[in-house]
Amino acid sequence: MKYRFDALLRLRKNEENLRQKEMAQANAHLILQEDRLQFMKSVEKQTKRGLDERVARDPDINVLLLHSRFYNGLNQQKYVQERIIGEASSFREGRRRGLAEAMKKRRTLELLKERQVEKLRVAERKRETDFMDEVAGNMKRARRI
After folding, report:
1. Closest CA to 67 of 91, 50, 87, 86
2. What does the domain layout of the chain look like in residue ranges?
3. How many CB atoms lie within 10 A of CB 18?
4. Is 3 helix (H, G, I), strand (E, B) or coil?
5. What confidence tens digit (pLDDT) does each residue in 3-51 have?
6. What angle do CA 47, 29, 89 make, to 5 degrees?
């Protein structure tokens, strides 16, 4: 039985391209969230250096209280950001699995198409060989006459 794999293969390629796009978007989102967390950590380091310098010059209780509240808020934001990163990472993993499945389906169709094309080539070679045998047989018979 002869199937037309071209249309199916086109659909599978489109699905794979869509999955690649979704994977890229999920990856970009994860990178953005990781950059935000890294920014929070760098702000924390800079603020600690600034606080150390300020406390060395003028140890004011109001400044210490202000920085304490700032660090508490920053730690809460970092905790939330780490949870967001975890969710984004698991979401990206799901997209990666979907992409792998789409690639597997497309490759399977490509293999089936290649097998079908090879069967058609073999059948064509057989027909040509049969035709050439018939021609050779006719020529041999024609020489006998």
Report:
1. 50
2. 5-111
3. 13
4. coil
5. 688 888 899 999 999 999 999 999 999 999 999 999 999 999 998 888 8
6. 95
